[in-house]
Amino acid sequence: MEAGAAGADFRTDRKPAVAISEGLRTYLAREGREVGLPVTYAQLRRFNQAVPLLERDGTDTLWETVAYPREEMAGLAEGLLRTYALLRGEGGMRVFRHVFVDRIDYCAFGNSQPFRIRIVNAYNENHDYFYVKVGDASRIAGLELEHLLSPNRMHYLTEGETLVEEHVVGIPGDRFATHWLGGTSHHPVRLAKELIKFEERCLVRLLGDMRAYNFVIAVTPDFDATAIRVRAMDFDQQSHNGRLAFYLPGSFRENRPFVDLCARHINAATAAQYRREEQSLIHRRHLAAPDRLRDLLEALRACPLSTPERVAALARGLADHHRDGAFVAARDMPDLVGISLERLGRVLRA
Fold it and tell me: Is 250 within 8 Å of 257 (Cβ atoms)?
């Protein structure tokens, strides 16, 4: 991450859900994402009680634990278990009979107003989460582009107006900055490298609003140090905003501690090296699935991901940033993503 416009104030209105076009629905069905889901988002909205969910120190998590009428709860829990089995085991319920729904949480704060389902193994008390959200074409586009162009595989399912997502494991960036950044459990240079590569991924595929609470940091012990992965966990702002800085995580005030870390440990030449490495990896992933990416972008053209004014503004910003006039010819956000990917091939051949 580079300082650039770091500290900028990005106040945005709640983004409405973008309708899923028939073309995108066809794409999802072909790729095994569109399936019959046992529980819908609308069903989960029918809770009749809610209690704030607090941290151990009493801090409000912005989530509420919800409850349902007794006559509905048994059927709802069974449907959620079947949903989890679809997400994790393609529907094989026989091996999931020893897990149960421990808690259902709801967050009115986020754009997607998600439900978070806590699943617990009755034998060893190990737990897992998954999320049920409104089916939003922007979010689906973000998930699919993450799956195809990043090091991370994304597991999600859709049906109608419902989207089911797996839990992205890691420490939320805002918590990491507060409790871990000054510690010794990670290598600061490795973290800085991953932050720079993460920012490059966001810019190339136009994933916006990566404030600290929208990405996670996963720290894994390695034989001589620690391996670190920075990855997005919120894809609501895929190709929506018209401001270039919105796609540069270092531009957000919330990310200032990470910008400062990169400034302390990485010089300009090394930052350029890391960006080039990530550009090469994205380009190779593109070459590995060119038809699928082409079909995805074509399916997204019928989804109103943004307005013509925002598309034009972002096209000008990208053209100025990259000194590449090809962006100004874009008709829509999928065009901009396509031009961005095509540009990598030219840059890497230069």
Answer: no
